[in-house]
């Protein structure tokens, strides 16, 4: 009967071992796979490693490692469990697998870079379990969401579903800008609020609802008018902005500020039975002024006035905005960058239109002057931006 030493010697004879020095040269090109137990991993790991304890290797290798042609460097504490793991991965069809001799102990003792992993606590691991099951998100993606900051303009029809879903998904910081109070006429669609909140500041009502939903989320409230005097300060430090405003002046102001700050904006709008969503990613795609160089005349700008909107519609559009924000935060899939998604509730149809970056855009074009943060008046009349970057109007 074979002893442990016999098995280990046999495994090592069939796999490839490399030194920590050789492994270090593969950082960035190979996947580093840590097959130790959680209590060992918690003490320190090689940055960027995939954590998959030896006991779950066969069952989870496909989902955690993905592409079988990508090189894998396996390590454990001393280089023995990783030798057995390397053999297993080869049997599972992984094409380029090596085991790191001496393990994490030798890596660390030789002075190579390591870090203590940021781990979700058991309650979070349970709460976000459905995210963690997705290899494209996983525990690292969830950790990233918890460290992310999203600013919502408006705690109304679009901001309500967007904020609820972003909070539920565990986006760690949600900023909310709104200077209104809750009115009973809001409740037809603004699902952050309820009867008990009538007369309360919308940002306070939003904070209560979101904190009740997910205590992991830090809700930062801005009970102010979003204007040229504060836009740059408010935007500072956010990763993505979800725009749920209903007026042209604020959209232009936000566009110009987001270009200056290079923060992507997930734009949404609704009118009667129709909605639109797109992503403005500064200098990587069109901006709001590429789409609409100047606001329409006031009489043709229905969203500036009181307009009807079917309940539920903002829920659909705001939810798509939340989804796009999460995709941007996690670098997932194809965001609606350069595409405008139009939803018609009566037809129950979605159409997608290409939106190109305009080389002559007054804000992000090749010859655009310096961006000036200026107010647009309440009638949606533009302060025309002149070629030299100065503005007209009051
Ligand atoms: Zn532009």
How does this structure look, described?
With 394 residues, the chain is α/β, with parallel strands linked by helices. It is 33% helix and 15% strand. The chain is built from 15 helices and 13 strands. It has an eight-stranded mixed beta sheet, sandwiched between helices. A five-stranded parallel beta sheet has the order 1-5-4-2-3. β6, α10 and β7 form a beta-alpha-beta unit. α10 packs parallel to α11 and α10 crosses α15. The longest helix is centred in the last third of the chain and has 18 residues. The chain is elongated, with a radius of gyration of 26 Å. The relative contact order is 0.09. The C terminus is likely disordered.
Give a brief rundown of this model.
The protein has helices at 4-14, 20-24, 38-41, 57-65, 81-91, 103-109, 122-127, 129-132, 138-146, 159-168, 202-213, 231-235, 248-261, 288-291, 313-330; strands spanning 17-18, 31-34, 50-51, 72-75, 97-100, 149-153, 173-177, 218-222, 240-243, 265-271, 274-280, 339-344, 349-354. By secondary structure, it is an alpha/beta fold.
Please describe the structure with a list of short key phrases separated by commas or semicolons.
394 residues; alpha/beta; eight-stranded mixed sheet; five-stranded parallel sheet; 15 helices; 15% strand; elongated; disordered C terminus; binds zinc ion
């Amino acid at each position: 009967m074979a002893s442990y030493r016999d098995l280990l010697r046999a495994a090592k004879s069939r796999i490839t071992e490399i030194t920590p020095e050789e492994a270090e040269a593969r950082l960035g090109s190979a996947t580093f796979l840590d097959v130790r137990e959680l209590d060992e991993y918690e003490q320190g790991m090689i940055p960027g490693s995939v954590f998959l304890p030896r006991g779950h290797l066969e069952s989870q290798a496909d989902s955690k490692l993905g592409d079988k042609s990508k090189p894998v460097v396996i390590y454990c504490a001393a280089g023995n469990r990783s030798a057995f793991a390397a053999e297993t991965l080869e049997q599972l069809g992984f094409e380029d697998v090596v085991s790191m001799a001496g393990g994490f102990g030798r890596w660390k003792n030789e002075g190579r870079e390591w870090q203590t992993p940021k781990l979700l606590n058991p309650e979070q691991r349970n709460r976000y379990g459905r995210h963690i099951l997705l290899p494209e998100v996983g525990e690292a993606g969830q950790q990233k969401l918890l460290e992310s900051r999203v600013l919502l303009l408006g705690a109304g029809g679009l901001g309500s579903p967007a904020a609820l879903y972003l909070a539920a998904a565990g986006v760690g910081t949600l900023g909310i800008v709104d200077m209104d109070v809750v009115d009973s006429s809001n409740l037809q669609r603004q699902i952050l609020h309820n009867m008990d909140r009538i007369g309360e500041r919308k940002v306070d009502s939003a904070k209560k609802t979101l904190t009740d939903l997910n205590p992991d989320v830090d809700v930062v409230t801005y009970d102010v008018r979003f204007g040229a005097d504060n836009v740059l300060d408010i935007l500072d430090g956010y990763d993505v902005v979800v725009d749920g405003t209903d007026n042209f002046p604020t959209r232009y102001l936000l566009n110009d500020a987001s270009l200056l700050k290079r923060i992507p904006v997930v734009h949404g709008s609704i009118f009667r039975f129709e909605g639109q969503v797109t992503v403005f990613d500064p200098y990587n795609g069109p901006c709001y002024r590429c789409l609409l160089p100047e606001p329409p005349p006031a009489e043709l700008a229905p969203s500036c006035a009181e307009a009807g909107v079917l309940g539920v519609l903002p829920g659909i559009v705001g939810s798509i905005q939340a989804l796009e924000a999460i995709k941007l935060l996690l670098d997932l899939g194809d965001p609606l960058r350069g595409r405008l998604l139009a939803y018609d509730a009566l037809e129950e149809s979605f159409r997608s239109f290409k939106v190109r970056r305009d080389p002559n855009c007054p804000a992000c074009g090749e010859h655009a002057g310096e961006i000036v943060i200026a107010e647009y008046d309440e009638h949606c009349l533009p302060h025309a931006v002149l070629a030299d970057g100065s503005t007209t109007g009051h």
